[in-house]
Amino acid sequence: MNGDQLTVDALRVASSANKSAVDGLLGQSSGALVISIEMPTLSTLWPTLGGNLKGNPTTGWLEESDSKIRSKGKGLQFAGHRSGNHWLCG
Questions:
Q1: Residue 40 contacts by C-beta under 8 Å, 6 or more apart in sequence?
Q2: CA–CA separation, 45 vs 59, rounded Å?
């Protein structure tokens, strides 16, 4: 973090087959943060999670966000609550 700007330089996190990545910067008046999520086995992250999730959200800056999200999930569940398939784009 530098002043009002957060810079993430190629952060990668992996747990079993689940992977996520973040790269870019996010600030009050400028930024582009790119996120990649590929989690085929959510249950390996937390015992009450289930299903799989994949997405590539991007975010602009904080003052006038230009965020976009695309995600796809199948068999999502958390603590006994279940959702079928979902597709989110916006």
A1: 17, 18, 52, 54
A2: 24
SS3 content of the chain, % helix, strand, coil (to 5): 5, 60, 35
> Percent of the chain scored above 70 by pLDDT?
87
Determine whether 48 is exposed, middle or buried from the number of CB atoms within 10 Å of its CB (0-12, 13-18, 19+): exposed
Provide the pLDDT for residue 62: 61
Q: Could you tell me the residue ranges of all domains in the chain?
A: 5-89
Q: What is the pLDDT of residue 6?
A: 84
Q: Count CA atoms closer than 13 A to 3's CA, side-chain side.
A: 6
Neighbours of 60 (CB within 10 A): 16
**What gap in Å lies between CA 37 and CA 11, rounded to an integer?**
12
